Amino acid sequence: MGITRRFRFQNYEIQPDPVGETTYAAECVSGDEADCGAQSGEKGETSNVAQWIAEHARDTGHQRYRRTVADYATAEPGEWQ
User: Fold this and answer.
1) CA dihedral in degrees (54, 30, 32, 34; nearest 10)?
2) Number of domains present in the structure of the chain
3) DSSP letter at 9?
4) Quick check: is 57 in a domain?
5) Which letter does DSSP use for residue 13 in this model?
6) 54 part of a folded domain
7) Pairing of strands 73-80, 10-16
8) Tell me: the pLDDT tens digits for 19-68?
9) Domain range enclosing 61
10) What pTM was computed for the model?
11) CA distances from 52 to 30, 58, 60, 70 (A)
12) What is the DSSP code string of 17-65?
């Protein structure tokens, strides 16, 4: 006699968390042999990251940067299927 199992899938609503703060950052990836690696650190505004990039570019001549955005999300249970 076999065992039968039935699994149901629950949908989730993924939404931005209104309490969480979005942060922005940049890392210098200029360099011939290896990336420079200088980092802006997390900032609360994109303009602060842009200012860091401009100052780093002015001081070093570096022109390539990797930008990242991080935020928080909530997963609210929805309908079962």
Assistant:
1) 130
2) 1
3) P
4) yes
5) E
6) yes
7) antiparallel
8) 999 999 999 999 888 999 999 999 999 999 999 999 999 999 999 999 99
9) 19-73
10) 0.75
11) 15, 10, 12, 18
12) -SSSPPEEEEEE---SSS----B---BSSHHHHHHHHHHHHHHH----E
